[in-house]
Amino acid sequence: MAEKLARLGLVTDADLLLHLPLRYEDETRLTAIRDAVPGVPAQFQVEVVSSEIAYRPRRQLVARVRDDTGAMVLRFLNFYPSQQKALAAGARLRVFGEVRGGFFGDEMIHPRFRVLHGDEPLPDRLTPVYPTTAGLSQAVLRKLIQRALEKADLTDTLPDTLRRRAAEADFGASLRFLHQPPPGMSLAELEKRTHPAWRRIAFDELLAQQLSLRRAYAARRARGAPVLAGTGALTKRLLAGLPFRLTGAQERVWREIAADLEQPHPMARLLQGDVGSGKTVVAALAMLQAVESGHQAALMAPTEILAEQHYRKLAGWLQPLGLEVAWFASSVKKKEREAWRAKVSLGGTPLAVGTHALIESGVEFDKLGLAIVDEQHRFGVQQRLALKKKGQSAHQLTMSATPIPRTLAMSYYADLDVSVLDEMPPGRTPVVTKLVEEGRRDQVIARVHDACRAGLQAYWVCPLIEESEALQLKTAQETYERLTAELPDLSVGLVHGRLKADEKATVMAAFVKNEVQVLVATTVIEVGVDVPNASLMVIEHAERFGLAQLHQLRGRVGRGAAESACILLYAQPLGESARARLKIIFENNDGFEIARQDLHLRGPGEFIGSRQSGVPLLRFADLEDTQMVEEARAAAEIMLRDYRQAADAHLARWLAGKEELLKA
Ligand code: ADP
Ligand code: MG
Prior knowledge:
Elements (H helix, E strand, L loop, with lengths): L1 H6 L5 H5 L5 E3 L16 E13 L5 E7 L4 E6 L4 H6 L5 E6 L2 E3 L2 E5 L2 E4 L11 E3 L8 H14 L8 H7 L4 H9 L7 H5 L4 H27 L10 H9 L6 H14 L6 E6 L5 H14 L3 E5 L3 H15 L6 E4 L5 H12 L5 E4 L2 H4 L7 E7 L6 H10 L4 E6 L5 H5 L6 E5 L9 E7 L3 H13 L3 E5 L7 H18 L5 E4 L5 H12 L5 E4 L12 E6 L7 H8 L9 E7 L5 H12 L3 H12 L1 H6 L16 H17 L1 H12 L3 H5 L1
Parallel strand pairs: 4-7, 10-15, 10-16, 11-13, 11-14, 12-13, 14-15, 17-22, 18-20, 18-21, 19-20, 21-22
Antiparallel strand pairs: 1-9, 2-3, 2-5, 3-4, 5-8, 6-7
Bound molecules: adenosine-5'-diphosphate and magnesium ion.
């Protein structure tokens, strides 16, 4: 039993209290069989006329029942011998479920039923139905929750002054109301999540989240970190040597980061900027400020392709300033890596770039001042933890091209400071998005041909096959062979996740130099690849991709002066959500708007799933209720300042036993 409860996250009494009904059933009334409405759940009181096991079309238990007004059939496709026994002729039952018109008249399939012994009064309140798991019955859960409700401490943790402001209902009263709705309460009224009792619980949940994240934030500010005040010597030279000027947004964000680096406690900042907004140069400036202050800086990226692009770019910018950049990736020969490692650990090299090889090959920095992680959500949990440990007292900057909608930033990400690059470098041409039915792929191939003959380049992204990596690889190989055959006068290349790092690098280098015109790729090119001359992106089976992925992929083009297009090939029939995704990506270019609609489509759980290692998800609160999120945030601040004990009690109630998760 304890194991089953634990599976639902129910360990303490408080957990049971906060395990709230999914919905309610009205067992306070009986419906006559004659009055049954198809598809509407109702309760009947009946007598079994006969029951038997039938074998057609498959083994099933069929019981004929009646009341004073009519008769119907109860049908069970799976059943226990005990159920068969209970349905003996003459037994009196209360049955709950939906009636349907079947071949042999009215019937109920798998109704919930209970045998009556003597006169049992009807319950006077609605019956809660709880989320549960296999082998744990509603009856048992209900009993446990009722017991917890009687003995647990229901003291309101929200101070009166805040309660009047934010959420009027009392905590204990709200819980009792939801677990044991008062007699006469209507189903419709109770299931509306706008009821004050529901709102109070939602508010408490948000408050707990805000309290824990703000505490984490405060704890970080209490730790020490090197002051990286910088001298401006190197950053000025970098800026002077760039072929462009920073955008206003880059200037602003750079100032925010620079100010953080000067603080004596570790920065934890997220730099958000749409694909192509120019995050790399901001990272380079931050790294230089660390170096100016006598410290080292490291930049880590989730894939070898991406890490190598960073490495080349940074080396290109920084070597002219006389700075050496160490390079760590699995493709780097062991001997060479050893040499870099030795240099880095002695402080001989101020800068390091790499994949997770950077943390895994045992590199010990002499004086690490700043650790930057690009596209952090693509790293595994273990790697993120290792990274966090490594950089305990270093400043941390994470960069992401997946925009986080405002309410998410205010809730799940409240432990971070956020900088946003909301302006694109000038001279970009907007990407035109086209939806093309698969049957017209010949036209698409012709278009690729024309573009490449005109000196441009194209990506051809292979379908995502989630169930099987092998199949995905096979498809990529086939697409490559087909395009090679159909475009004989062009050079076609192929990259996928299974290529060895140096093979991958060779193909990418050829693409960068325009020796390869069409690059067939799996989603390995999803993040960060920067080839301005590529102006055409074809995505096959676009309906299988998520919105963030589509937006990322599309962001690979439109980086140069040429007019760019993204062609989304799709196959009919389209499911409802695939259709919704394609419509959103077709109509929107702004990553923030896409992310907002994505959040709306999928809910926050899915959205942040890739970032989080296990932060408890919100169960009751609705992140689209911006006002409530803001109120919870304000309340958390006041509680941490003026009502510390209440804050402790609130956190204990909501997050007891889950604090560890929050730290990951
Ligand atoms: P992302 O934010 O997606 O990582 P990058 O840093 O790769 O974007 O920048 C995309 C491209 O824009 C690069 O080629 C980069 O050199 C260029 N770039 C960055 N900032 C500017 C700017 N202010 N003006 C012109 N081009 C810029
Ligand atoms: Mg980038």
